[in-house]
Each structure stands twice: as structure tokens, then as C-alpha cells.
Specification:
It contains 13 helices and 2 strands. It is mainly α. This is Sphingoid long-chain base transporter RSB1. It is found in: Cell membrane. Belongs to the lipid-translocating exporter (LTE) (TC 9.A.26.1) family.
Length: 388
């Protein structure tokens, strides 16, 4: 196949512009994301240079390997940058909306990406050496396919967790807010601001009032994930057919299922850059190293509030502040409890009181044969007040 010269030159220009945008957007201080997408941009530009070079002589091996290796492994870096954004969204909305603690998503999927990249690189290197030695490339191809298969499997798992997260924050919260038992399309008409009390109060200012970069960030990320997944499935099928298969010898498949898909994904994440969505220049969203609400190893006399309360968490969000702070496995129960009886838009200064229950041995005896006082042993509660 002779690569189309005009198309590949056009793609060099497009990816050059996208790469320049990603370099400029480093100012948003999303360093992991920017590094990943800058690597993607560099690989895409090099890959299309290889394809343009091959136009003049398809028998040359160097431009062919430059094209195949660079364009095949580029999405690994793209997904590496995207995986970390789910962890950040879980911090913004609340860890209770995820299946795992936020940092685990990053560890698992980025590690999978690194392994996939290593396998693909090994496959490309093996195939390249085989060609140089005028030997068959079957072994290298199989290694390459194994790396792509791992990447596709990893993306499938991520997509399941991603759509579960979207269901939790957009559908389940509205069902809970409306106090209904099942979903109906009318629930989607409920404004996000109205259900915001169910989210983590610490980052309320990022969600309310609604900002376009944040409001559509999850949609842009969904589009990017779906298009990259489409591209990876295509590449897996292409290499599984072999170097002389129908897919690899017809450029239109590549144009639609690789070039267009990768371009759409990168444009989505450039226009709706996480730095703009998360206000990266003014705010920082640290991802907790461990689950915030794990059981403390300190002596039992200390309460969870001794080490979990942060000043930033005491927002004007009524009782939902306490629901978020008590956290962990009881979050869903607290969301429906009496704590959530305050409209966060109505009060700007709230005094909170947390009931603390302690043992009170109330049986009293006067030392005589008289009947003891009628006070019964039980529990008494007092109020521990604290202000914002």
C-alpha cells in the first residue's frame, strides 16, 4: 500500500497544532496529563512523518517501522493521561461513588498501560530485528498483538468502571434525591445544582455555579474513551490478520478507524482540558494515597473526627458536610438521614451539633434498705457544638 501523500501531510499539520496546544496548556498545571498527551502528540507526528516518507518508496523499512511503532503505541500514553482523571473526579464528587479508593484506579490502569507499552515495544523491536536479519516477523507480531490485547482488555474494565461512576453521579443521585424507586427520563431534568448536596462539599465551588469546561468534561472524556477503544480494537484486528491482511493494505480503514478516532479523542481532551475543568491554575486536587475512611489504629478513645475533619470540609452545605466526613461505608445511609435537612443555598453561617453518646451509670444507692432512686441505668447524650 502506498500511503496517501496529501492526507498524511494534513495529519502532520493537525497533530503539530494539537501538540502545540498541549504544550501551551502545561500552564494549567496538570503535569501528568500534559506529559502523557505531549508524548502522544510527538509519537503521532513521527508516525505520520514515517507514512509520508513511505509514499516515495514503500520498500524502505525505516519509515515503515517508524509509522507502525509510533502510531500503534501512541494511544497508550493517551489512556495513561485519561485514567488519572477518573481518580480526580472521584475526589471532586466523593469516593463513595467509586468501586475502589480513587488512587487505586490510577495504580491499576496506569500499571496496565506500562506493561502493555513494554510488550508492544518488545514486539516492535523483535519484528524490526527479524526484518533486518531477513527473517520472519511472526514472533514479533504475536508479541505486538499480545500487548494490544492487554490494552483492549484493560480499557474494557476501565469503561465498565467509568460508566458505573457516571451512573452513580448522574442517575442514582437523582433517584435518591427524588425519592423514587426506578429511573425515568424526567429525572434528567433535575438541575445538577439541586442534587449537589449529595456530592463531596469540599469541591462544591468547582461544581456550582455550573461552568462549561467542568459541566461537559465527563462527556468529552466519554467521547475520548470510546473513540480510542474503537481505534485499539481496529489495530488489534489489523495485526491479528497479519502484515498482508485486508485491513493493513487498505488505507481507508486506517483513516477512519485510527486517524479520525485518535484526532477526535485528542481534540475532545484539548478543548475540555482537565486544567480548565478542575481550575488547575488556582486549585489543587490531591489524590489520597490511601482510603480516607479506613479504620484508625489509634486508641479507641479517639473519635474519627480527631483526624478526619478538615477545615475546608466545613462548608455551607448543611448536614451533607457531616455525611461526607463520617464517610466510608455509611455515606449512602447518611445521605438520607436527618443530617441533610438544610438547604445549602439558604444558610451561610451554620452551627453544627454532633450527638455523642456516652455511658452513664445512673443507679444510685443511699446505703440503706430504701429503694434505690428511680433513675435507670442507660445512656445519656449531650451535644458537642462546634462552629464553622
Amino acid at each position: 500500500m502506498t500511503p496517501n501523500l496529501a492526507f498524511n501531510i494534513c495529519m502532520i499539520v493537525i497533530w503539530g497544532i494539537l501538540l502545540a496546544c498541549q504544550i501551551v496548556q502545561v500552564i494549567y498545571k496538570q503535569y501528568w496529563f500534559s506529559t502523557a498527551f505531549i508524548c502522544t502528540g510527538i509519537l503521532e507526528v513521527l508516525g505520520y512523518i514515517g507514512r509520508t516518507w513511505s509514499h516515495s518508496d514503500t520498500s524502505l523499512m525505516d519509515p515503515f517501522l517508524l509509522n507502525m511503532i509510533c502510531l500503534t503505541i501512541a494511544p497508550v500514553f493517551t489512556m495513561g493521561g485519561i485514567y488519572y482523571q477518573l481518580a480526580k473526579l472521584l475526589e471532586v464528587y466523593g469516593a463513595k461513588f467509586g468501586q475502589w479508593p480513587p488512587i487505586i484506579y490510577s495504580y491499576v490502569f496506569i500499571a496496565s498501560d506500562i506493561v502493555s507499552l513494554a510488550i508492544q515495544a518488545a514486539g516492535g523491536g523483535t519484528a524490526g530485528m527479524a526484518v533486518a536479519d531477513k527473517k520472519g516477523t511472526k514472533e514479533g507480531t504475536h508479541i505486538f498483538v499480545a500487548g494490544l490485547a492487554l490494552q483492549v482488555f484493560s480499557m474494557l474494565v476501565f469503561m465498565f468502571l467509568w460508566f458505573h461512576f457516571l451512573y452513580q453521579i448522574f442517575i442514582k443521585t437523582r433517584i435518591q434525591h427524588a425519592k423514587v424507586s426506578k429511573f425515568s427520563w424526567s429525572l434528567l431534568k433535575i438541575p445538577s445544582e439541586e442534587i449537589d448536596y449529595l456530592y463531596k462539599p469540599k469541591y462544591r465551588n468547582m461544581r456550582v455555579p455550573s461552568r462549561i469546561p467542568f459541566k461537559y468534561f465527563t462527556l468529552a472524556m466519554t467521547g475520548a474513551v470510546l473513540t480510542i477503544f474503537t481505534r485499539c480494537v481496529y489495530r488489534l484486528a489489523e495485526l491479528a490478520e497479519g502484515w498482508e491482511g485486508n485491513l493493513i493494505t487498505h488505507e481507508w480503514y486506517f483513516i477512519i478507524l485510527d486517524a479520525v478516532m485518535m484526532s477526535i479523542a485528542t481534540i475532545c481532551m484539548t478543548v475540555f482540558h482537565p486544567g480548565m475543568a478542575f481550575e488547575g491554575r488556582t486549585q489543587s486536587i490531591p489524590i489520597a494515597k490511601t482510603h480516607k475512611f479506613r479504620k484508625s489504629k489509634k486508641k479507641s478513645s479517639e473519635t474519627a473526627f480527631d483526624h478526619d475533619i478538615e477545615a475546608g470540609d466545613l462548608n455551607t452545605n448543611g448536614g451533607s458536610d457531616l455525611a461526607d466526613l463520617v464517610g466510608g461505608q455509611d455515606d449512602d445511609d447518611l445521605d438520607n438521614s436527618s443530617w441533610n435537612n438544610t438547604d445549602s443555598n439558604e444558610k451561610t453561617d451554620t452551627n453544627y451539633a454532633i450527638p455523642i453518646v456516652e455511658d452513664n451509670k445512673t443507679a444510685v444507692s443511699d446505703g440503706s434498705n430504701n429503694v434505690s432512686n428511680n433513675k435507670q441505668s442507660g445512656l445519656k447524650s449531650k451535644l458537642w457544638p462546634f462552629n464553622k
